[in-house]
Amino acid sequence: MRKILLFVAFAVFIISCKHETVIPEELESPQISHECDSDTVYFVNDIQPLLNATCNTSGCHDAGTAEHGVDLSSYAKVIQTGEVRPFRPEGSELYEVLFESGDDLMPPPPQSALTSEQKELIRIWISQGAKNNGCIDDCNLESVSFTSDIQLIISNNCASCHTGTSPTGGIAFSSHSEISALANSGKLMDALMGSNGVSQMPPSGPMDDCNIDKITKWIEDGTPNN
Ligand code: HEC
Q1: Which of 43, 49, 147, 202 has a 20 to 30 A CA-CA distance from 224?
Q2: What gap in Å lies between CA 145 and CA 203, rounded to an integer?
Q3: Confidence (pLDDT) at 9
Q4: Has residue 6 got a pLDDT over 80?
Q5: Which of 156, 160, 168 has most ligand 1 atoms within 8 Å of its beta carbon, as the pocket-test mutant?
């Protein structure tokens, strides 16, 4: 019995290792989020541009040359031919070659080696799962308005519990006067941040930063009914 279990565990291990090297659903189109997280390294924003400047060049690792079969011109090719092992920079060719010596070092002399910051970008991207990810910061705080921003944010994120005749927690807000009263009492921001002893709202987890930034801006503007 023990042996069978061990065998099953081993088989699962092998299968999961294999599985790790390919991420089919992500191979074609990148996941673009509408907010850039400063702790995340993005393939589209950070890694492909770095590879384009240093490796994906004619005579080296562009699609046409693909020296040693390594083509660094797209996400799928980088994963497959750069032998990237998601979450394991030390087991990934793409990362290891940055530290080799002599002819094995990439980029090869006389080209200069990558800087430690550039190497670090590649290391973090792989250790975060080598995802086909990107981001666009499209949170526009120039013209925040009550009707087109704040009211929508509240109705999408809070109204399910905080409207009607018997709202949750006995607290209802949907009109401009109710929402601005809540904002001016400080309770709105406290609820959004989970600060000053107020429970974090929504209870399922904080809203995305862009929504919170818009509400903050609207309060700074004096909670106008615009
Ligand atoms: C799934 C239901 C639900 C959603 C969605 C929700 N709330 Fe609440 N809210 C509650 C409950 C339950 C309480 C009472 C919890 C407590 O007092 O600990 C509460 C209490 C509050 C309070 C009063 C806190 C206090 O201590 O006086 C505020 C303010 C508040 N919510 C704001 C919001 C805002 C703003 C949103 C949207 C961003 C939101 N809530 C979304 C369920 C919800």
Answers
A1: 202
A2: 25
A3: 55
A4: no
A5: 168
